[in-house]
Amino acid sequence: xxxxxxxxxxxxxxxxxxxxxxxxxxxxxxxxxxxxxxxxxxxxxxxxxxxxxxxxxxxxxxxxxxxxxxxxxxxxxxxxxxxxxxxxxxxxxxxxxxxxxxxxxxxxxxxxxxxxxxxxxxxxxxxxxxxxxxxxxxxxxxxxxxxxxxxxxxxxxxxxxxxxxxxxxxxxxxxxxxxxxxxxxxxxxxxxxxxxxxxxxxxxxxxxxxxxxxxxxxxxxxxxxxxxxxxxxxxxxxxxxxxxxxxxxxxxxxxxxxxxxxxxxxxxxxxxxxxxxxxxxxxxxxxxxxxxxxxxxxxxxxxxxxxxxxxxxxxxxxxxxxxxxxxxxxxxxxxxxxxxx
Amino acid sequence: xxxxxxxxxxxxxxxxxxxxxxxxxxxxxxxxxxxxxxxxxxxxxxxxxxxxxxxxxxxxxxxxxxxxxxxxxxxxxxxxxxxxxxxxxxxxxxxxxxxxxx
Lengths: 341, 102
Fold this sequence. Notes:
Number of domains of chain B: 2
Number of strands of chain B: 3
Structural class of chain B: mainly alpha
Helix content of chain A: 40-55%
Number of helices of chain A: 13
Largest sheet of chain A: 2 strands, antiparallel
Strand order of the largest sheet of chain A: 1-2
Distance between the termini of chain B: 38 Å
Number of domains of chain A: 2
Low-confidence stretches of chain A: 1-6, 204-213, 249-262, 289-295, 328-341
Strand content of chain B: 5-15%
Shape of chain A: elongated
Order of helices and strands of chain A: EEHHHHHEHHEHHHHHH
Structural class of chain A: mainly alpha
Radius of gyration of chain A: 32 Å
Largest interface: A-B, 81 and 58 residues
Number of strands of chain A: 4
Low-confidence stretches of chain B: 1-11
Strand content of chain A: under 5%
Oligomer: heterodimer
Shape of chain B: elongated
Distance between the termini of chain A: 62 Å
């Protein structure tokens, strides 16, 4: 078709500020298939095109265009796969355009078609339709995901540890097999058999971190320490400081925020200062009370210190519990830890 | 005149946010490709493996049985722009106009 080199044509976008380019070459690389072979495009159902005769010969073994019902099971299935996977259509699979019939003709006659180019051009066409006529449909969900994965985008997202599969709405496509044939009535119901070799949905776990601590670096040190200790006791694993995200995903939790704003966020230094001040006050108070009866002896003081530490511990335990509840509410998946087994 | 003003405003609003379309993520449906079980199909009298082997597409069909990240795909789509030779040339010409030393 005399098109410009692929380097000149690409789809550019970005994910979380990371640039992503898709070209014919990147599709070819991801599906491990050279970008070579025949490519025919833009026939626009032209009735005078010489392709009509060629295609009719291959599909219907006739010079006239036949009906869908006249096609063999194999061709019907090939057409279905083409409409689902190779050149996805939003509907109307029974009446393929001349372009799509030519594509099918290449497959049936085992002439190599330039599949990466077909896919790329189809992607561009639908993208332009989204932009111009607001077509609310995206083809090649799995292919685009794989390009993002192999292009290192998922790795980059993994490094910030922000996302879980639930947040990314992860899905796996429905498998087409013998039961599909049954479903579209290409075979009889009683002829269908489930095989032990039947393909199962991919069990590959996500490429993303599946769990991450529901704490973040802005948390007070005590909260982090307490959480890590508890986690270690329950799971037997230590949380590395590098595993803790800088910020809670999506910003602070709404309830935590309102709580915080009332209290005003404390820095570590402020907290220590505050604690010292309170300790001093208490010490003074206790001194006043104790001095009336007995002069303070070192043993009493250590007990008071211990009591204060216990108070602090209680406070942070409470804080932690409240937080776990929040996390359970908003992220059931992550809250799993806190429930124990 | 009054009719064109609101649509212009709409357009600039999404362009500022780095978007190339007025559609929002939640409005878009992602079509996820279906993994193929060619063994099961062949058992039921529909042998297609030879066809896809001839096209060198075994790896492609193997790839289909994996995760699709719907949110990322939607995020990608609403910000995607097609760059063709014409568009790139036009952009270069504009840059040259702004800075003639180029």
